[in-house]
């Protein structure tokens, strides 16, 4: 992976003209692009370190440095994402830019014939369809003018309706907290997430115990069973997908069992 990262940086360095970054062309050049020393200066690193990076040696590039390099090299959104992926780093700016979602969230869930909703990293519901609103009474059946987005964890641990609706609540609660820990990863210290965790830990003894256990599991699909107050017992197969342009957003679909 290091060699691919170095090759990618070198290729884009050599196609970035000095004029595009405010430097004089100056003298004869082997290529029309930036010299390694020039890119190093613009990124505020040593030429030796950049040489090692381009050669694929075991050197680590921080997210801040990668962001600066992406700006200097005028990388597109796709190229920037690829750069961070090769370096195995999270691009905080891209990952958390709601304006860059690029997806009609309401249209996505409306097109699904079954309960469907989209969660952000904090597990706030950003969009849901009428099937989901009908299933999750007490969570998604809120007014559009509500002051805050409905949060799945708050519903699970603070709303008594969740225990009556979700069959096998204890096991689902355990998995949800373990999935949430895996989902947020390094972002747990961000203010919004830290505040949510502190709030739930204070208000719910069950959440506090599960969060303290440090369990981690991947968010998976599988059978989900509900005891709806009007429709009775219902079963669905859950499928969870990440949106292509916003990896911090998850599309959750509950497909009726045959």
Q: What do these coordinates show?
A:
The chain is elongated and about 80 Å long. The chain is α+β, with helices and mostly antiparallel strands. A hairpin with a 3-residue loop joins strand 3 (222-228) and strand 4 (232-242). The protein has helices at 2-14, 36-43, 47-54, 63-72, 77-87, 92-95, 105-110, 130-135, 152-158, 160-165, 169-184, 191-203, 205-212; strands at 116-119, 125-128, 222-228, 232-242, 250-256. The chain has 2 domains: 2-95, 434 Repressor (Amino-terminal Domain) (Orthogonal Bundle), CATH 1.10.260; 105-256, Beta-Lactamase. Helix 2 (36-43) crosses helix 3 (47-54), helix 11 packs across helix 13 (205-212) and helix 12 packs across helix 13. It has 13 helices and 5 strands. It has a 5-stranded antiparallel beta sheet. This is Helix-turn-helix domain-containing protein. It holds the Pfam family MLTR_LBD. Residues 8-80 form the HTH cro/C1-type domain.
List the helices and strands and how they pair.
Layout: H1 2-14, H2 36-43, H3 47-54, H4 63-72, H5 77-87, H6 92-95, H7 105-110, E1 116-119, E2 125-128, H8 130-135, H9 152-158, H10 160-165, H11 169-184, H12 191-203, H13 205-212, E3 222-228, E4 232-242, E5 250-256
Antiparallel strand pairs: 1-2, 1-5, 3-4, 4-5
Domain HTH cro/C1-type: 8-80
Protein name: Helix-turn-helix domain-containing protein
Organism: Duganella lactea
Features of this protein?
258 residues; alpha+beta; 434 Repressor (Amino-terminal Domain); Beta-Lactamase; 5-stranded antiparallel beta sheet; 13 helices; 13% strand; elongated
């Amino acid at each position: 992976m290091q060699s691919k990262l170095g090759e990618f940086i070198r290729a884009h360095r050599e196609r970035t003209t000095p004029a595009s970054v405010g430097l004089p062309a100056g003298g004869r050049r082997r290529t029309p692009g930036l010299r390694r020393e020039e890119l190093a200066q613009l990124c505020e690193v040593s030429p030796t370190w950049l040489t090692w990076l381009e050669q694929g040696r075991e050197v680590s590039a921080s997210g801040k440095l990668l962001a600066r390099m992406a700006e200097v090299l005028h990388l597109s959104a796709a190229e920037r994402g690829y750069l961070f992926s090769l370096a195995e780093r999270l691009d905080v700016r891209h990952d958390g830019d709601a304006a860059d979602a690029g997806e009609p969230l309401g249209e996505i869930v409306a097109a699904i014939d079954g309960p469907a909703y989209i969660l952000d990293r904090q597990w706030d519901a950003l969009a849901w369809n009428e099937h989901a609103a009908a299933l999750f009474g007490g969570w998604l059946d809120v007014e559009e003018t509500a002051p805050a987005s409905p949060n799945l964890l708050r519903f699970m641990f603070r709303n008594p309706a969740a225990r009556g609706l979700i069959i096998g609540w204890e096991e689902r609660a355990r998995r949800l907290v373990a999935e949430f820990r895996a989902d947020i990863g390094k972002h747990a210290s961000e203010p919004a997430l830290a505040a949510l965790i502190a709030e739930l830990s204070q208000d719910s003894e069950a959440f506090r115990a599960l969060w303290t256990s440090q369990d981690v599991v991947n968010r998976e699909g599988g059978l989900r069973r509900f005891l709806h107050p009007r429709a009775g017992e219902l079963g669905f197969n859950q499928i969870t997908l990440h949106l292509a342009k916003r990896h911090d957003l998850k599309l959750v679909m509950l497909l009726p069992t045959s």
